Amino acid sequence: MEAFQLMSAKPILTLTVNPALDVSTSTGRVISGHKLRCGTSRLDPGGGGVNVSRVIQRLGGQTLAIHTAGGPTGEAYRRLIEAEHIPSLVVPIHGSTRQNFTVDETATEKQFRFVLEGPELTEAEWRACLSVVAESIPVGGYVVASGSLPPGVPEDFYARIARLARKGGAHCIVDTSGAALAQALAEGVFLVKPSRRELGEHVNAALDSEQSQIEAASALIADGSAEYVALTLGEAGAMLATKSGVIRLPVPSVQVLSTVGAGDSFLGALVLRLAQGHPIEVAFRAAVAAGSATAMTPATELCHRRDVERLEAELSARAL
Ligand SMILES: Nc1ncnc2c1ncn2[C@@H]1O[C@H](COP(=O)(O)OP(=O)(O)OP(=O)(O)O)[C@@H](O)[C@H]1O
Ligand SMILES: [Mg+2]
Q1: Is residue 240 a contact partner of residue 284, using CB atoms and an 8 Å limit?
Q2: Ligand 1 atom having least distance to the Cα of 287
Q3: 238 pairs with which residues across the strands?
Q4: 2-28+40-319 belongs to which CATH class?
Q5: Diameter of the chain measured on Cα atoms
Q6: What whole-number distance in Å separates Cα of residue 20 and Cα of residue 118?
Q7: Ligand 1: residues within 6 Å at CB?
Q8: Distance from C-alpha of 128 to C-alpha of 130, rounded to nearest angstrom
Q9: Where are the domains positioned within the chain?
Q10: Residue 298 contacts residue 104 (beta carbons within 8 Å)
Q11: What are 181-209's pLDDT values in tens digits?
Q12: CA of residue 134 to ligand 1 center, whole Å
């Protein structure tokens, strides 16, 4: 059955305009003025869209990852993507791909995440990203635009992607925040995946009650901003709003080590299951399972397939 699903899965394209080489390590305590001796370090090719591609790959699916890369960090980034055998199209840029830095403080189990600003893209560079996407739109498939926009890229960039996807007959999925999110929603997308913080900023409300969350998510369906809203609520699980109503899922019980990449894992599993032809409710369960499976792994490490499938089965059994 899996082979059949793989053969018939709809194509998925992911886009990462602001990728980051993720450097993660640990130290006893983060104290100013001292040399902080760190443990072993780990390098991962991060950034929203690429992480979505990596999760889909781990779960047995395939994507085409379009991303920018520049400078020596961009070179290292490309090699890491190649090493994971992820089919990709690279848009070269003059600036250097950024790095993000995550430090686990072992004495307290706190995690410090330093997220750097990306290099500025020239107009020719961001337009090149649009052209590469336009040439690769999978008819009937999915275009996942995820992550922040680097300096130089106009706020309506994801709105332009949404327009290209619609014209090309593909489903556009957006995971971003702030003005880029607002403009994409004004254009209209197939699915949007805000976290509670991101949707709260968008509607200028705390969204700390279930009712306010339901109202904010449903409003986006009602006004045509999106066909589906997958609102993720961290340790409280997630909510899915569709035109037929709202469903909620709590997280399965897991031991949490690090939630870095949880949202990307949620989205990766969601899109993969949709592309495999599963109903949205099934895809939504897989998404919560994958987000929580990534929370079980340390630092920047993403979910493992066996954990996702186990948690997915647990959530389906609960739904019966
Ligand atoms: N502490 C946790 N325990 C279990 N599962 C979690 C936890 N945090 C996140 N998850 C899982 O990951 C999913 C996404 O998490 P979250 O809502 O934090 O989104 P995010 O995109 O990572 O957040 P943001 O973009 O604001 O940093 C949740 O719906 C849940 O399935
Ligand atoms: Mg997120």
Answers
A1: yes
A2: 31
A3: 232, 249
A4: alpha beta
A5: 58
A6: 8
A7: 195, 197-198, 232-235, 237-238, 251, 254, 256, 259, 262-263, 266, 288, 291-292, 295
A8: 5
A9: 2-28+40-319
A10: yes
A11: 999 999 999 999 999 999 999 999 999 99
A12: 31
